[in-house]
Amino acid sequence: MIRRPHRELHRSEHIGWLRAAVLGANDGILSVGSLIVGVAAADAGYSQIVLAGLAGLTSGAMSMAAGEYVSVSSQADTEKADTELETAELASDPEGELHELTGIYVERGLEPELARQVASQLMEKDALKAHLRDELGITEQFVARPLQAAWASALSFSIGAALPVAVAALAPRSLSVILVSITTVLSLTGLGAMSAAVGGASMLKGAVRVAFWGIVALVATSLIGWVFGVSVS
């Protein structure tokens, strides 16, 4: 009796959109939070601080979307070219492609005869899919999706950046630097822990490493803002 295979939920299946979303949110919180802290430390007015935050949110979201789209589109173009090449090779030399796939399975530990049987059966079912997966490492789960990566990055950046912007808009001017800094660090800590948990890693390590670099960025921008603010005045 053949047992029905059960469906396993692997975290790696979501790595494409998860990477883009985490990167976008992290960049949104850190870059816009640091920008606001730097402008506020330069003794800018309330409206200037909020405007800087909104400008950073808008430009950052567009930049993230464009960057992800261009980057992932390049990957998609490469995958498309490889697929076309593999399709042509299967049409012109099926026996050679069978031998190539057999060699791959032999290298993975199968006996030559069994490897050829496996390769033959897989090619009978879907030769192109078998070669894309086992020769080139292209699978449905990891195929490049430019639009998905672009909107995930832009949306997550906007959500992340909205936190420090909201705090800057609602906080008293005298407390802008402190409250935005606290919000940024806490948000980064939570994001680091959450992304680590989703990826199956240590939540503590994920939180600490993201928070550390967030603090470094905030200190650097606040110092720059303070120095230039003193120089201007």
Beta-strand percent range: under 5%
Q: What would you call the structural class? A: mainly alpha
Oligomer: single chain
Q: Count of helices?
A: 7
The portion of residues assigned to helices is over 70%
What distance lies between the first and last C-alpha atoms, to the nearest angstrom?
Answer: 83 Å
What is the element string, with H for helices and E for strands? HHHHHHH
* Rg estimate, integer Å: 25 Å
Large-scale geometry: elongated
* Biggest sheet statistics: none
Quick check: average pLDDT? 82
Number of strands: 0
Give a short summary of the structure:
With 233 residues, the protein is mainly alpha-helical.
Can you tell me about this structure?
This protein has 233 residues and is mainly alpha-helical. It contains 7 helices and no strands. The chain has helices at 15-41, 46-92, 94-107, 112-134, 146-170, 176-199, 203-232. α1 (15-41) packs parallel to α7 and α6 (176-199) packs antiparallel against α7.
Note the topology.
Layout: H1 15-41, H2 46-92, H3 94-107, H4 112-134, H5 146-170, H6 176-199, H7 203-232
Question: Which characteristics define this entry?
Answer:
233 residues, 7 helices, 82% helix, elongated
